[in-house]
Write a structure and sequence with these properties.
About 45% of the residues are buried. Helix 3 (about 60-75) packs parallel to helix 4 (about 100-125) and helix 4 runs parallel beside helix 5. The protein is of the alpha/beta class. The radius of gyration is 17 Å and the shape is globular. About 40% of the residues lie in helices and about 15% in strands. Helix 4 (about 100-125) links the parallel strand 4 and strand 5. It is built from seven helices and seven strands; from the N terminus they run βαβαβαβαβαβααβ. It starts with 7 loop residues before the first strand and ends in a 9-residue tail after the last strand. Bound molecules: NADP nicotinamide-adenine-dinucleotide phosphate. NADP nicotinamide-adenine-dinucleotide phosphate binds near residues 37, 38, 39, 82 and 179.
């Protein structure tokens, strides 16, 4: 039976990495969680109790399916736009990045979060909810090779800032999680030993603290919310 009093989150890209770690933590805290990934066959077992909607965030039919799944639950308190495309690995210079790859990076990292936000704003407004757009230090640092991904995250940051100005009833954050030992990070550093980077689970308490303390909307670093109880 639908319990509309229970806090509800949609987390994109929860097949592994940060998205899955955050989904697991919210489920443990008795949230209802809707998740997706393109490869989602393992997700019902990995995240028991979640609502799994397999698909690609750039696909309008999948965006509609996500909105329908959330609508069926009757409320939305938290939208986490976490699914992301790094682009080609090894990371090419801007001189060499294929435009089709750059276009796909922007579709995934900017336009899909915008589309999901548009579809879900009525429910987010009704709950005075939060939008958490997962950004990167590459949005503000001009790392060579990170041009497509970094500029897409910069666009996501600005989209976040404008949404915050337009929707004062919501909490709207662009969050830089910091380096994490994930598949995406390994793809960014092919062949390198990344075992010294923290696991994505290490970032989750900071995200929970951000959600629960609800500071003013803006761009934040997860590291600034680390170390205190969630
Ligand atoms: N790892 C880092 O060091 C780091 C640093 C700064 C920022 N970030 C950001 O943190 C977030 C999480 O990254 P991560 O390192 O946890 O990545 P990850 O381990 O590669 O996981 C990404 C997840 O997103 C899913 N995904 C990717 N594209 C998708 C699409 N088009 N539609 C639906 N799902 C999709 C993937 O599953 P499928 O492939 O099966 O779809 C996977 O479940 C991203 O926004 C990333 O940009 C990461």
């Amino acid at each position: 039976m639908t319990n509309t009093a229970q806090p509800t989150a949609l987390i994109t890209g929860a097949g592994r990495g940060l998205g899955q770690a955050l989904a697991r933590a919210l489920l443990a805290a008795s949230w209802r969680v809707v998740v997706d990934a393109r490869r989602a066959g393992h997700l019902a077992a990995a995240l028991p109790g979640s609502v799994v909607v397999p698909g690609d965030v750039t696909d309008p039919a999948h965006q509609e399916a996500l909105a329908a799944a959330v609508g069926g639950l009757g409320r939305l308190d938290l939208l986490v736009n976490n699914a992301s495309d790094l682009g080609p690995s090894p990371l090419p210079k801007l001189a060499d990045v294929p435009l089709a790859a750059a276009r796909q990076v922007f579709e995934t990292n900017v336009l899909a979060p915008l589309a999901l936000t548009q579809r879900l704003l009525p429910l987010l407004r009704a709950s005075r909810g939060a939008v958490l757009n997962v950004s990167s230090d590459a949005a503000v640092e001009p790392y060579a090779g990170w041009g497509a991904y970094g500029s897409s995250k910069a666009a996501l940051d600005q989209l976040t800032a404008v949404l915050a100005a337009e929707e004062p009833g919501l909490a709207v954050y662009a969050v830089d999680p910091g380096d994490m030992r994930t598949e995406m990070h390994q793809a960014a550093f092919p062949g390198e030993d990344i075992s010294d980077r923290p696991a994505p689970e290490a970032v989750v308490p900071a995200l929970l603290r951000l959600i629960t303390t609800r500071p003013p909307s803006g761009r934040v670093r997860a590291a600034d919310f680390a170390g205190a109880p969630a």
